[in-house]
Amino acid sequence: MTTTIDRLFDVSDFVTEEERDWQLRAREFAQTRIAPIIDEAFEQRRLPAELLPEVGEFGAFGMYLDGYGLKGASSVAYGLVAMEFEAVDSGFRTALSVQGSLAMGAIYKFGSEEQKQRWLPPMGRGEAIGFFGLTEPQGGSDPNTMLTTARREGDEWVLNGRKRWIGLATVAQLGVIWAKDEEGVVRGFIVPTDTPGFEARAIENKLSMRASLQCEIELTDVRLPADAILPGSKGLSSPFKCLNEARYGIAWGVMGAARSCLEAAVSRSQSREVFGAPIGSKQIIQAKLADMFVEYEKGLLLALHLGRLKDAGRLTYGQISVGKLNNVREAIKIASTCRSILGGDGITSEFPVMRHMANLESVRTYEGTDEVHQLVIGRELTGIAAF
After folding, report:
1. pLDDT at residue 208, as a whole number
2. Which residues does residue 199 pair with via DSSP β-bridges, in sequence order?
3. Which residues contact 107 (CB under 8 A, 6 or more apart)?
4. 41 and 103 together in one domain
5. End-to-end CA distance of the chain
6. What is the CA 229 to chain-centroid distance, rounded?
7. Rounded Cα–Cα distance for residues 338 and 341 (Å)
8. Which of 8-22, 201-215, 318-332 has the lowest mean pLDDT?
9. Is residue 275's pLDDT more than 60?
10. What average pLDDT does this structure show over 52-56?
11. How far apart are CA 203 and CA 215, in angstroms?
């Protein structure tokens, strides 16, 4: 299962045997279970949700968390799994992130022991699907403008508001909703999706991430028991800690999309002939392939460095922003250049490149736009917030 790209610069030289095993098993799962149906799912604007229980059986949901039946794998192992999933499609890797890094991560970090015992084991097995309800229609990259409210009435919390671009909400059994309490403090709540007043609708008009599921949510006097609140959550720093887990996975995942595009371009350069010779024999094509490969490997080594820092407990917000900003930006450039090498056929579904190009535009936007991460890095460099 070694690819052409692997042979030139093999990541297995830098990871443990266990981490490499996770990667190879993820590659086999992605290539045999996701890849055969992903083009059709993209055309049908459908997340292949029937595969989510298999991801749970595989053990990838919340795989870097300890206890509660979870695998306790390294952050590097998780990154490698994310990369292999996104090598097939960004949308399916997003589902891995929403479930494992955001929904499960919020409960793991801020939930009570009872909440963890109740929800994390079935979520890890893929028997219960969760979502993470932070973004709102008017807020986008500024969650401090949050309008969703949670007020206390006796032994209940009552939630009202709207959320948008929320992954998995229409197929989920529960979600973590972020709302401002009566003191204006952001708190997290576990909301079963069968609660009266909860409504989720899929966003249907996407031209990107079509094989994924993003939703709008309306909360109308949603009544929850007092113990629905995540007791450890207080303030925007709580959801941001979850978002940083997802951003870390993106730094790895997009390198999978870049690799997939590179493999298609290399193969095409060897097989397509123009002016009496394969296009790969032309200096300009080889220069493009070489430049793309260099950026791919730099991005992969950056992700690996971030993973080692994370496993050592030393990864900072600014460093995560470096990974998300650089790797998404370079993956988009790689996909675009590969599309040009493929010529007119590059816009067809015969190759995965145009699908990756479209998906990566969404990845560029969610979990912090380029501009947001530039400002995070700028704040780290100057000590001055320019938000």
Report:
1. 96
2. 218
3. 115, 116, 119, 120, 123, 130, 176, 190, 230
4. yes
5. 45
6. 25
7. 5
8. 8-22
9. yes
10. 96
11. 5
Residue in 166, 163, 168, 136 with CA at minimum distance from that of residue 61: 168
| pLDDT score of 293 more than 80 | yes
pLDDT over 90 for what percent of the chain? Answer: 93
Question: What is the mean predicted confidence (pLDDT) over 99-112?
Answer: 97
Catalytic residues: 367
Reduced to 3 states, what is the DSSP secondary structure of residue 149?
strand
Q: What is the mean pLDDT of the chain?
A: 95
Give the pLDDT of residue 1.
55
d(C-alpha 318, C-alpha 28), whole Å = 33
Q: Return the CATH number at 53.
A: 1.10.540.10
List Cα–Cα distances, 133 to 32, 205, 243, 287, 313, in angstroms. Answer: 32, 20, 11, 44, 27
Query: What's the total number of domains in the chain?
Result: 3
pLDDT at 345 over 60: yes
φ and ψ at residue 235, rounded to 5 degrees: 90, 170
pLDDT at residue number 4: 65
Contacts of 201 (CB under 8 A, 6+ apart): 170, 215, 216
Residues of the domain holding 93: 4-124
Reading the block at residue 319, the tokens are: 């460093």
186: Cβ contacts below 8 Å, ≥ 6 apart: 143, 146, 178, 179, 180, 233, 234, 235, 236, 238, 239
188 inside domain: yes
Same domain, residue pair 101 and 168: no
Q: How far is CA 72 from the centre of its chain?
A: 19
- Residue ending a domain, among 124, 140, 175, is 124
Query: Taking residues 119-141, what's their average pLDDT?
Result: 94
Quote the percentage of the chain above a pLDDT of 70.
Answer: 98
Rounded Cα distance, 250 and 280, in Å: 31
Task: Report if residue 387 sits inside a domain.
Answer: no
What is the spatial distance between Cα 356 and Cα 54, in angstroms, rounded to a whole number?
Answer: 23
Q: How confident is the model at residue 219 (pLDDT cuts 50, 70, 90)?
A: very high
18 and 106 both lie in a single domain:
yes
Q: Looking at 124, 140, 157, which one is the last position of a domain?
A: 124
3-state DSSP call for residue 359? helix
